[in-house]
User: What shape does this take?
Amino acid sequence: MPTFSRQQISIALLDDHALVLRGLIQVLGESAEFRVAGSFTQSKELLQSLKREKVDVVIVDYELEPADTDGLTLIQTLTRLHPATAILVVSAHYNPATVALAIRGGAKGFIGKNRPFEEIRNAALEVSRGRVFLEPQMAREMAQQQRYGEVLLNGHYSEENIQRAVSLSSLSPKEQEVIRCFLSGMKVTDIAEKFNRSLKTISGQKQSAMRKLGLKADHELFIIKDELLKSLQF
Assistant: This one.
């Protein structure tokens, strides 16, 4: 009687370090569930490959070489061009702010490069099924910095709750300008003068941006200042 094997999960890999790619290929190759369709050191190579062959999951580093695109822009591009492909980030930059930005940008999971090999396989499997993968400790740390993530503190790590903790509606160009200037040290009155807008308008745009970011107080903005300044487009 013939037997039928489950269809393998196809994966594409992107990291600017060849040794990391080799390790990922070896780890994933140990599981019959996965098929590595390609490995790349530059984002343009990955994007060109995806035009020819769709995959179920892409595993990418968040910070590539300086001449390449930044991690958030790449995640957003992949999400826009290949919405059916799950994005899993594996990076040494493993902190709540970076993880939150990646998930907001469209990634379905994020693990640190210092995590056990078994976790990479589990994460790839989870995101391929349409689920969000965050290890519990990171989810707790994110919840402590995200007011909308309070439910996570109780240990309810459902996809809905995780998404609520890191959800982000895109800021408008004017909201981006206001947040950028505020984070650079300008007061609301200075920003109003700079852009020739009323104090009420600038204050309203700042508050609107903070609501979209899921923040309630100015100090929360500065917690993720560096990542926000990297990601805001002007």
